[in-house]
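Milestone 3.1: sequence recovery, worked example.
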C-alpha cells in the first residue's frame, strides 16, 4: 500500500480496513457518485451510522438518475418513433409515385386509343 493511503486526516474510521475505500475507488477508477456510496457504506458502523447509509443510498440514486433516467428512455423512444415515421413517410412517397406512374400510363393509353 502506498504511503498516501496509510494517512488519514480527520479520524481513524478507515485505518482498520484491509483496503481503504479511497484506494479501492481510485484503483478501480470509479465515478464520483459510486465512490462516495462505497465510502459511506464502508464507514457507517464506525462513524455516521444510519445517516451514512442514507448518504450511500442518495449517491446510488444519483448514479441511477445519471445513467438510467426516464429522460434517457424518453429520448431513445422518441428516436425510435422518428425512425419509424421516416420509414412510413418513405413508403408512402414510394406508393404515391407508383400510383402516379400507373395513372399516367392509364391516361396515356386512353389518349392514344382515342386519337
Amino acid at each position: 500500500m502506498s504511503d498516501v493511503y496509510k494517512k488519514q486526516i480527520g479520524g481513524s474510521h478507515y485505518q482498520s480496513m484491509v483496503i481503504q475505500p479511497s484506494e479501492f475507488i481510485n484503483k478501480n477508477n470509479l465515478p464520483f457518485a459510486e465512490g462516495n456510496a462505497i465510502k459511506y457504506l464502508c464507514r457507517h458502523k464506525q462513524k455516521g451510522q444510519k445517516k451514512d447509509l442514507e448518504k450511500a443510498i442518495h449517491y446510488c440514486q444519483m448514479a441511477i438518475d445519471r445513467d438510467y433516467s426516464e429522460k434517457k428512455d424518453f429520448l431513445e423512444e422518441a428516436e425510435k418513433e422518428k425512425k419509424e415515421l421516416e420509414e412510413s413517410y418513405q413508403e408512402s412517397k414510394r406508393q404515391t409515385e407508383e400510383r402516379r406512374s400507373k395513372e399516367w400510363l392509364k391516361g396515356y393509353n386512353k389518349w392514344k386509343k382515342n386519337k
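The CA atoms of residues 29 and 35 lie 9 Å apart. DSSP finds five helices and no strands in the chain.
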